[in-house]
Amino acid sequence: MNDTIFLNGMKFYGYHGALSAENEIGQIFVVDVTMKVDLSIAGKTDEVTDTVHYGEVFETVKDIMEGKAVNLLEHLAERIAKRINSHYNRVMETKVRITKENPPIPGHYDGVGVEIVRENH
Length: 121
Prior knowledge:
single chain, 121 residues, alpha+beta, GTP Cyclohydrolase I, domain 2, 32% helix, EC 4.1.2.25, Dihydroneopterin_aldolase, folate biosynthesis
């Protein structure tokens, strides 16, 4: 089954990072979430209760990304995946990608970040 719901390019300002400059100045984080969900029932019923409400998922991600600062993107991604998986039993798997477009690292790049995939048990 290859059905997915995705939220791409969500942007949040936060103060996460292991470097003190990141904690003081902050930066924009770009978050992409893809959830593996059986969408066949919602496709037949046309009812939002038969799917995962992506507006609610956005608010979940926003609360975590704009909440208390942490050191690692890995920790943020894990929290997002865990919260989605624990809240939505329809979700079979959650992929979370978090990108820092402008970290305080000398060099030229489009971004640095992490991507995790967590199954919902």
